[in-house]
Amino acid sequence: MTPARRVVTLPPSLRGPEALRFAADARSRGAEVLEVRTDLHPADAVDASALAGLLELLVSERGTPLPPAWVAAARWVDRDVVHAGDLAAPAGKLLASHHAERPLSTEEALRLWDVALPAGSLVKHIEPLGVESRERISVLLETQARLRARFGEERVTVLAMGPTALPVRAVLARRNVLDYVAVGGDWKAAPGQRLLADATREARHPHPVPLPEGEGKSGRLAILGTSIVHSRSPRIHRQPFDRIDIPEDAPVEALVDALLPHYRGFAVTSPFKMRLARHTGSPLDAINTLVRRRDRWESFNTDTAGARSVLERLGARDMFVLGDGGASAAIRVVGTEMGCQLRFLRRAEISGPLSGSGIWTWPDRITPPDTLRFEGARIAVIAYGAPARRIATEITRRGGTPLLLGAAWFIAQARQQRALWETAS
């Protein structure tokens, strides 16, 4: 099976030369196809011929008819199988698509595709994910298999959409012709798209032993969290590794259970460490690692290795901890073992300037209280990358001295995670 071709959609804010720069940048990052949609751009906003010189061009009719110049320049022409009438397109260019308004059974989906298509046409079937369950994912995989059997293995793409659809899209992508992904930043053409960087990394470093899912060490890996675009986990762990960035109120418990046949492990980060500890029946207050054990998840907290690294580098025996979430649980365990005196401070409990040594555990997205001030305190930051730099600026502004120890935490806990995932069954 040829790997799915990575498709990025031109953002609606980009026109003319900016659109060309976007296409060139996307190509340099691993994109292979550029989609231009009539609901996002008027005919005169882009130079279709120039764009086609940078990436293969997919033009999609969404309400407004396709401009002839777009069709002439395109490699594929996307028209809706239900609403586009006779599906007219130049020979060999048709991508027939359907966007279902609700989750469908496989038989319902197949009836929609009981149409005659021109030779060489591609097929794209899209459904909202609906309830996160093993059964729902199985239905989508069955629909994909049946459409491939009907139209040909090299012609079909099946997509899921929704706030928690990303891992399902990643599973489906293994047998799709096209993989619609997001370049990054705030723009995504559809909810559930994974990042171009993650899809490209997987294509360049495929799993060395492509075993059937459910057998031993097969299956995907991923990090689960909210606002994790900065995460370095996909760069250091074995591929395929997905960055599953989902809303804070997402049904993460149902999602991990539904993904059990397809994933052999998860890294868990804020805000799901405590919720998944409860869900898996862990004796720990918070966990950061899930490992597949045939028909269940076993949970661990390798953050203790990271906490030990940070406490040793901070070198204090009496300190405060800002926040009392998942990371704090690991600090509490290790601090007790090391004989440290720890004060865990929630935001509402901070009323005066803090001195001495401390650890900042709040994620970057959480606004610290206005009352927070430091008097020369040394503050360990356990985030890394851009979020760590923003936190460090905030600490300095409030009178503290930041110590960027997030990389040390991350590497120590990730090393243990990798070893645990190798034991998956």
Automatic annotation (TrEMBL):
MF GO annotations: oxidoreductase activity
Domain of life, source organism: Bacteria
Protein name (database record): Shikimate 5-dehydrogenase I alpha
InterPro entries, A to Z: Aminoacid_DH-like_N_sf (IPR046346)
